[in-house]
UniProtKB/TrEMBL annotation:
Pfam family, one: Phasin_2
Phasin domain: residues covered: 23-115
Protein name: Phasin, PhaP
InterPro entries, A to Z: Phasin
Source organism superkingdom: Bacteria
Length: 148
């Protein structure tokens, strides 16, 4: 009866000749976690500022509604109060929308900066990893050739 060949030693030698650098994977994980932390910080900061603007806008609108709801002596005063409220609301809306636009612009700029920095870091890391892998494969190939 034919005996099947034991490939265990062969596979062990082959895997040993082409080692996997887990440090590179750990670095990728750490860099990704760091980037995610920075992006989350940008998003949370923007959310906090947006909430502050919304809160101030609501308080302002409610205080102006309180002035408009007060009893007036003449019917024409009600029309004037409504006109004043609409005018003030439009002005405040424009200011607040501009503030929201500034927040969005800052988020966009911060995100682009983070992504550019991350891309540069990844490019440098990839170049170093490819160079190291090339050197390791070349060394392993030389060892394999010499072993024959």
């Amino acid at each position: 009866m034919a005996k099947t060949q034991d490939f265990t030693a062969f596979m062990k030698d082959m895997m040993g000749a082409f080692p996997v650098d887990t440090a590179a994977l750990e670095d990728v994980f750490k860099n990704t976690a760091s980037l995610n932390e920075k992006l989350a910080s940008v998003a949370l900061d923007a959310a906090e500022k947006s909430t502050e603007i919304s809160n101030a806008w609501t308080k302002d609108a409610l205080s102006k509604l309180g002035d408009m709801a007060k009893a007036k002596a003449e019917p024409a005063d009600y029309a004037k109060a409504a006109t004043d409220y609409a005018s003030a609301s439009a002005e405040v809306a424009a200011e607040n929308l501009a503030a929201f636009a500034e927040i969005a612009k800052k988020v966009q700029m911060d995100t682009v900066e983070l992504m550019m920095a991350a891309g540069k870091d990844m490019s440098e890391e990839a170049t170093a990893a490819v160079k190291k892998a090339t050197e390791e494969v070349t060394t392993a190939a030389k060892k394999a050739t010499a072993a024959r």
